[in-house]
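[Help] Beginner question about ligand-bound structures

Sorry if this is basic. My supervisor gave me a protein sequence and a SMILES string for flavin-adenine dinucleotide and asked me to "get the holo structure". I don't really know what that means in practice or what format the answer should be in. Inputs are pasted below exactly as I got them.
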Amino acid sequence: MKAAAFAYHRPDTVSEAVQMLGEFGDDAKILAGGQSLVPMLAMRLTYFENLIDISRIDELKNIERHDDELVVAAGTPHSLVGMDDEVAESVPLLTLSTPYIGHFQIRTRGTLGGAIAHADPAAEYAAVALALDATMEATSSRGRRHIPAAEFFTGLWETSLAPDEVLTAVRFPVWGGRSGFAVEEFARRHGDFAIAGATVAVQLDGDDRVARCGIGLLGLGSTPLRGTAAEVAVVGQAAHAATAEEVGRLAMSGLSDIPADLQGSADYRSRVGAAMVTRAWAAAIRQAQTSEAEAIHA
Ligand SMILES: Cc1cc2nc3c(=O)[nH]c(=O)nc-3n(C[C@H](O)[C@H](O)[C@H](O)COP(=O)(O)OP(=O)(O)OC[C@H]3O[C@@H](n4cnc5c(N)ncnc54)[C@H](O)[C@@H]3O)c2cc1C
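Answer (accepted):
No worries, everyone starts somewhere. Holo just means with the ligand present. The predicted complex, written as C-alpha coordinates, is below.
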Protein backbone atom coordinates (compact mmCIF):
# COMPACT_ATOMS: atom_id res chain seq x y z
CA MET A 1 0.00 0.00 0.00
CA LYS A 2 1.17 3.54 -0.70
CA ALA A 3 0.45 6.79 1.09
CA ALA A 4 -2.31 8.98 -0.34
CA ALA A 5 -1.03 12.05 -2.22
CA PHE A 6 0.09 15.00 -0.11
CA ALA A 7 1.81 18.34 -0.66
CA TYR A 8 5.43 18.35 0.50
CA HIS A 9 7.04 21.43 2.08
CA ARG A 10 10.63 21.79 3.20
CA PRO A 11 11.30 24.90 5.31
CA ASP A 12 14.89 25.96 6.05
CA THR A 13 14.18 27.57 9.42
CA VAL A 14 11.98 27.01 12.47
CA SER A 15 10.17 30.29 11.85
CA GLU A 16 9.25 29.17 8.31
CA ALA A 17 8.04 25.84 9.70
CA VAL A 18 5.80 27.43 12.34
CA GLN A 19 4.46 29.88 9.78
CA MET A 20 3.47 26.95 7.54
CA LEU A 21 1.88 25.10 10.47
CA GLY A 22 -0.13 28.22 11.31
CA GLU A 23 -1.20 28.61 7.68
CA PHE A 24 -2.28 25.00 7.03
CA GLY A 25 -3.82 24.34 10.46
CA ASP A 26 -5.14 20.81 11.05
CA ASP A 27 -4.32 19.83 7.45
CA ALA A 28 -0.58 19.79 8.18
CA LYS A 29 1.82 17.49 10.00
CA ILE A 30 5.50 17.78 10.82
CA LEU A 31 7.70 15.17 9.14
CA ALA A 32 11.02 14.62 10.96
CA GLY A 33 12.87 11.30 10.47
CA GLY A 34 9.71 9.70 9.07
CA GLN A 35 10.34 6.42 10.92
CA SER A 36 6.93 6.42 12.58
CA LEU A 37 4.91 8.81 10.42
CA VAL A 38 5.78 7.36 7.01
CA PRO A 39 4.71 3.77 7.86
CA MET A 40 1.44 5.15 9.27
CA LEU A 41 0.85 7.16 6.08
CA ALA A 42 1.80 4.19 3.90
CA MET A 43 -0.65 1.94 5.76
CA ARG A 44 -3.24 4.73 5.50
CA LEU A 45 -3.72 4.80 9.25
CA THR A 46 -3.49 8.58 9.02
CA TYR A 47 -3.60 11.27 6.34
CA PHE A 48 -2.55 14.92 6.06
CA GLU A 49 -2.80 17.21 3.05
CA ASN A 50 0.51 18.89 3.87
CA LEU A 51 3.71 17.41 5.23
CA ILE A 52 6.25 19.89 6.57
CA ASP A 53 9.68 18.27 6.44
CA ILE A 54 11.92 19.72 9.18
CA SER A 55 14.85 17.38 8.52
CA ARG A 56 16.97 20.03 6.76
CA ILE A 57 16.62 22.69 9.46
CA ASP A 58 20.15 23.05 10.84
CA GLU A 59 19.12 24.87 14.03
CA LEU A 60 17.15 21.73 15.01
CA LYS A 61 20.31 19.58 15.09
CA ASN A 62 22.34 20.52 18.10
CA ILE A 63 23.46 19.30 21.53
CA GLU A 64 24.56 21.88 24.10
CA ARG A 65 25.38 21.78 27.80
CA HIS A 66 24.24 24.82 29.80
CA ASP A 67 25.32 24.55 33.45
CA ASP A 68 23.04 21.90 34.93
CA GLU A 69 21.02 21.22 31.76
CA LEU A 70 21.66 19.38 28.51
CA VAL A 71 19.66 20.87 25.66
CA VAL A 72 19.08 18.51 22.74
CA ALA A 73 17.52 20.11 19.67
CA ALA A 74 14.53 18.11 18.50
CA GLY A 75 15.86 17.20 15.05
CA THR A 76 19.00 15.53 16.39
CA PRO A 77 19.05 11.94 15.12
CA HIS A 78 19.11 9.06 17.62
CA SER A 79 22.50 7.95 16.26
CA LEU A 80 24.13 11.32 17.09
CA VAL A 81 22.55 11.32 20.56
CA GLY A 82 23.88 7.81 21.15
CA MET A 83 27.45 8.62 20.08
CA ASP A 84 27.88 12.07 21.61
CA ASP A 85 30.47 12.38 24.40
CA GLU A 86 28.72 15.32 26.07
CA VAL A 87 25.48 13.32 26.22
CA ALA A 88 27.31 10.33 27.73
CA GLU A 89 28.88 12.59 30.36
CA SER A 90 25.80 14.68 31.18
CA VAL A 91 22.76 12.43 30.62
CA PRO A 92 23.97 8.81 30.56
CA LEU A 93 20.39 7.48 30.38
CA LEU A 94 20.12 8.81 26.81
CA THR A 95 23.32 7.01 25.79
CA LEU A 96 22.27 3.78 27.51
CA SER A 97 18.79 3.78 25.96
CA THR A 98 19.74 4.60 22.35
CA PRO A 99 20.89 1.10 21.29
CA TYR A 100 17.46 -0.27 22.26
CA ILE A 101 15.67 1.94 19.70
CA GLY A 102 14.86 -0.11 16.60
CA HIS A 103 17.79 -0.87 14.29
CA PHE A 104 20.71 1.32 13.20
CA GLN A 105 18.92 2.41 10.01
CA ILE A 106 16.02 3.69 12.15
CA ARG A 107 18.43 5.38 14.56
CA THR A 108 20.15 7.13 11.64
CA ARG A 109 16.93 8.78 10.41
CA GLY A 110 14.78 8.94 13.54
CA THR A 111 15.07 12.03 15.71
CA LEU A 112 14.92 12.57 19.47
CA GLY A 113 12.12 15.10 19.03
CA GLY A 114 10.21 12.73 16.74
CA ALA A 115 10.39 9.90 19.28
CA ILE A 116 9.13 12.21 22.02
CA ALA A 117 6.43 13.94 19.93
CA HIS A 118 5.20 10.57 18.63
CA ALA A 119 4.77 9.55 22.29
CA ASP A 120 4.72 5.79 21.88
CA PRO A 121 4.18 4.18 25.31
CA ALA A 122 7.29 2.07 24.69
CA ALA A 123 9.56 4.94 23.56
CA GLU A 124 12.84 4.91 25.47
CA TYR A 125 13.59 8.64 25.18
CA ALA A 126 10.13 9.49 26.46
CA ALA A 127 10.72 7.31 29.54
CA VAL A 128 14.12 8.99 30.05
CA ALA A 129 12.52 12.45 29.78
CA LEU A 130 9.94 11.46 32.40
CA ALA A 131 12.44 9.86 34.79
CA LEU A 132 14.68 12.93 34.75
CA ASP A 133 11.91 15.55 34.80
CA ALA A 134 12.97 16.98 31.45
CA THR A 135 11.28 20.01 29.91
CA MET A 136 9.94 20.19 26.36
CA GLU A 137 10.41 23.40 24.42
CA ALA A 138 7.51 24.11 22.03
CA THR A 139 7.59 26.88 19.44
CA SER A 140 4.74 28.40 17.45
CA SER A 141 3.97 31.74 15.81
CA ARG A 142 2.74 32.77 19.28
CA GLY A 143 6.22 32.31 20.75
CA ARG A 144 7.94 29.67 22.86
CA ARG A 145 6.69 27.77 25.92
CA HIS A 146 8.10 25.09 28.16
CA ILE A 147 6.16 21.96 29.09
CA PRO A 148 7.27 19.69 31.96
CA ALA A 149 7.60 16.05 30.86
CA ALA A 150 5.00 15.09 33.50
CA GLU A 151 2.41 17.17 31.59
CA PHE A 152 3.50 16.28 28.07
CA PHE A 153 2.29 12.71 27.43
CA THR A 154 -1.50 12.84 27.52
CA GLY A 155 -2.63 9.58 25.85
CA LEU A 156 -1.73 6.91 23.34
CA TRP A 157 0.40 8.78 20.73
CA GLU A 158 -0.97 12.04 22.12
CA THR A 159 0.82 14.99 23.69
CA SER A 160 0.02 18.44 24.99
CA LEU A 161 1.65 20.03 21.91
CA ALA A 162 -0.86 22.27 20.12
CA PRO A 163 -1.39 21.51 16.40
CA ASP A 164 0.54 24.67 15.45
CA GLU A 165 3.53 23.95 17.69
CA VAL A 166 6.88 22.45 16.77
CA LEU A 167 8.83 20.64 19.46
CA THR A 168 12.14 22.47 19.11
CA ALA A 169 14.23 21.06 21.97
CA VAL A 170 14.22 18.90 25.06
CA ARG A 171 16.04 20.14 28.16
CA PHE A 172 17.40 17.31 30.32
CA PRO A 173 18.58 18.10 33.89
CA VAL A 174 22.13 16.91 34.54
CA TRP A 175 22.36 14.76 37.67
CA GLY A 176 25.77 15.01 39.32
CA GLY A 177 27.23 13.72 42.58
CA ARG A 178 26.80 10.09 43.53
CA SER A 179 24.42 9.17 40.73
CA GLY A 180 23.78 5.90 38.93
CA PHE A 181 21.82 5.15 35.79
CA ALA A 182 20.52 2.00 34.11
CA VAL A 183 18.16 0.92 31.34
CA GLU A 184 16.65 -2.56 31.11
CA GLU A 185 14.02 -3.77 28.70
CA PHE A 186 12.64 -6.97 27.28
CA ALA A 187 11.59 -7.49 23.66
CA ARG A 188 11.19 -10.77 21.81
CA ARG A 189 13.68 -9.66 19.14
CA HIS A 190 16.32 -6.96 19.37
CA GLY A 191 14.99 -3.83 17.66
CA ASP A 192 11.33 -4.49 18.46
CA PHE A 193 9.45 -2.12 20.72
CA ALA A 194 9.87 -3.35 24.30
CA ILE A 195 7.16 -5.49 25.90
CA ALA A 196 8.18 -3.71 29.10
CA GLY A 197 11.20 -1.79 30.28
CA ALA A 198 12.61 0.65 32.80
CA THR A 199 14.95 3.64 32.83
CA VAL A 200 16.30 4.37 36.31
CA ALA A 201 18.24 7.32 37.71
CA VAL A 202 19.22 7.41 41.37
CA GLN A 203 21.27 9.82 43.45
CA LEU A 204 22.65 8.98 46.90
CA ASP A 205 23.63 11.46 49.59
CA GLY A 206 26.77 11.24 51.73
CA ASP A 207 24.99 8.95 54.23
CA ASP A 208 24.07 6.47 51.52
CA ARG A 209 20.43 7.52 51.50
CA VAL A 210 18.45 7.97 48.31
CA ALA A 211 18.41 11.72 47.74
CA ARG A 212 16.33 11.48 44.58
CA CYS A 213 15.32 8.94 42.00
CA GLY A 214 13.37 8.73 38.78
CA ILE A 215 11.92 5.50 37.43
CA GLY A 216 10.62 5.67 33.84
CA LEU A 217 8.45 2.79 32.65
CA LEU A 218 7.86 1.72 29.05
CA GLY A 219 5.22 -0.53 27.56
CA LEU A 220 3.16 -0.53 30.75
CA GLY A 221 0.33 1.90 29.94
CA SER A 222 -1.11 4.01 27.17
CA THR A 223 1.71 6.51 27.72
CA PRO A 224 5.24 6.21 29.07
CA LEU A 225 4.93 6.32 32.87
CA ARG A 226 6.79 6.79 36.12
CA GLY A 227 7.04 4.21 38.88
CA THR A 228 5.77 6.76 41.38
CA ALA A 229 4.93 4.39 44.25
CA ALA A 230 8.48 3.01 44.22
CA GLU A 231 10.03 6.48 44.00
CA VAL A 232 8.03 7.72 46.98
CA ALA A 233 8.95 4.63 49.02
CA VAL A 234 12.72 4.87 48.49
CA VAL A 235 13.49 8.62 48.64
CA GLY A 236 14.99 9.52 52.01
CA GLN A 237 15.62 5.86 52.88
CA ALA A 238 18.93 4.01 53.04
CA ALA A 239 19.99 2.73 49.61
CA HIS A 240 19.35 -0.88 50.58
CA ALA A 241 16.35 -0.35 52.88
CA ALA A 242 14.19 -1.87 50.17
CA THR A 243 15.42 -4.83 48.12
CA ALA A 244 15.61 -4.36 44.37
CA GLU A 245 12.75 -6.86 44.04
CA GLU A 246 10.59 -4.76 46.36
CA VAL A 247 11.35 -1.66 44.31
CA GLY A 248 10.35 -3.59 41.16
CA ARG A 249 7.07 -4.73 42.71
CA LEU A 250 6.28 -1.26 44.06
CA ALA A 251 6.91 0.35 40.65
CA MET A 252 4.07 -1.76 39.24
CA SER A 253 1.59 -0.89 41.98
CA GLY A 254 -1.02 1.64 40.98
CA LEU A 255 -0.62 0.99 37.23
CA SER A 256 -4.20 0.78 36.04
CA ASP A 257 -4.14 0.28 32.27
CA ILE A 258 -1.35 -2.16 31.53
CA PRO A 259 -1.92 -3.26 27.91
CA ALA A 260 -2.82 -6.83 27.00
CA ASP A 261 -2.15 -7.90 23.41
CA LEU A 262 -0.63 -10.65 21.30
CA GLN A 263 2.73 -10.06 23.02
CA GLY A 264 1.33 -10.91 26.44
CA SER A 265 -1.34 -10.41 29.06
CA ALA A 266 -1.40 -7.44 31.44
CA ASP A 267 -0.23 -9.75 34.23
CA TYR A 268 2.70 -10.96 32.13
CA ARG A 269 3.73 -7.40 31.25
CA SER A 270 3.49 -6.41 34.88
CA ARG A 271 5.80 -9.26 35.91
CA VAL A 272 8.26 -8.40 33.13
CA GLY A 273 8.08 -4.73 34.14
CA ALA A 274 8.83 -5.57 37.79
CA ALA A 275 11.81 -7.66 36.70
CA MET A 276 13.15 -4.84 34.50
CA VAL A 277 12.85 -2.28 37.31
CA THR A 278 14.51 -4.74 39.71
CA ARG A 279 17.51 -5.16 37.43
CA ALA A 280 17.82 -1.49 36.54
CA TRP A 281 17.47 -0.39 40.17
CA ALA A 282 20.19 -2.80 41.33
CA ALA A 283 22.54 -1.65 38.55
CA ALA A 284 21.89 2.06 39.16
CA ILE A 285 22.49 1.74 42.93
CA ARG A 286 25.68 -0.23 42.26
CA GLN A 287 26.91 2.50 39.92
CA ALA A 288 26.08 5.31 42.35
CA GLN A 289 28.07 3.57 45.08
CA THR A 290 30.94 2.66 42.77
CA SER A 291 31.26 6.20 41.47
CA GLU A 292 31.86 7.31 45.07
CA ALA A 293 34.46 4.58 45.59
CA GLU A 294 36.32 5.77 42.48
CA ALA A 295 36.09 9.40 43.58
CA ILE A 296 37.61 8.54 47.00
CA HIS A 297 40.32 6.42 45.36
CA ALA A 298 41.22 9.27 42.97
C1 LIG B 1 10.85 -1.18 12.98
C2 LIG B 1 10.83 0.01 13.90
C3 LIG B 1 11.21 -0.18 15.22
C4 LIG B 1 11.21 0.90 16.11
N1 LIG B 1 11.55 0.69 17.40
C5 LIG B 1 11.52 1.72 18.27
C6 LIG B 1 11.85 1.53 19.64
O1 LIG B 1 12.20 0.43 20.08
N2 LIG B 1 11.78 2.61 20.46
C7 LIG B 1 11.41 3.86 20.01
O2 LIG B 1 11.36 4.82 20.79
N3 LIG B 1 11.09 4.06 18.72
C8 LIG B 1 11.14 3.03 17.85
N4 LIG B 1 10.81 3.25 16.54
C9 LIG B 1 10.39 4.60 16.14
C10 LIG B 1 11.58 5.51 15.91
O3 LIG B 1 12.25 5.81 17.11
C11 LIG B 1 11.12 6.82 15.32
O4 LIG B 1 12.25 7.43 14.83
C12 LIG B 1 10.44 7.80 16.24
O5 LIG B 1 9.34 7.25 16.92
C13 LIG B 1 9.88 8.99 15.46
O6 LIG B 1 10.92 9.82 15.13
P1 LIG B 1 11.00 10.43 13.70
O7 LIG B 1 12.01 11.52 13.76
O8 LIG B 1 11.20 9.35 12.71
O9 LIG B 1 9.55 11.12 13.56
P2 LIG B 1 8.44 11.05 12.41
O10 LIG B 1 8.13 9.63 12.08
O11 LIG B 1 8.83 11.95 11.30
O12 LIG B 1 7.24 11.72 13.21
C14 LIG B 1 6.56 11.00 14.21
C15 LIG B 1 5.46 11.90 14.80
O13 LIG B 1 6.04 12.96 15.56
C16 LIG B 1 5.70 14.23 15.02
N5 LIG B 1 6.90 15.06 15.10
C17 LIG B 1 8.16 14.68 14.77
N6 LIG B 1 9.04 15.65 15.07
C18 LIG B 1 8.31 16.67 15.60
C19 LIG B 1 8.66 17.95 16.13
N7 LIG B 1 9.92 18.36 16.18
N8 LIG B 1 7.66 18.74 16.60
C20 LIG B 1 6.36 18.32 16.56
N9 LIG B 1 5.99 17.10 16.09
C21 LIG B 1 6.94 16.29 15.61
C22 LIG B 1 5.25 13.98 13.59
O14 LIG B 1 4.38 14.97 13.14
C23 LIG B 1 4.60 12.60 13.73
O15 LIG B 1 3.31 12.74 14.26
C24 LIG B 1 10.83 2.20 15.64
C25 LIG B 1 10.48 2.38 14.30
C26 LIG B 1 10.48 1.31 13.44
C27 LIG B 1 10.12 1.53 12.00
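A couple of things worth pointing out: The pocket of flavin-adenine dinucleotide is lined by residues 29-37, 39, 54, 74, 100-102, 106, 110-111, 113-115, 117-118, 120, 123-124, 161, 166-167, 191, 193 (CB under 6 Å). The two ends are 60 Å apart (CA to CA). Feel free to follow up in the thread.
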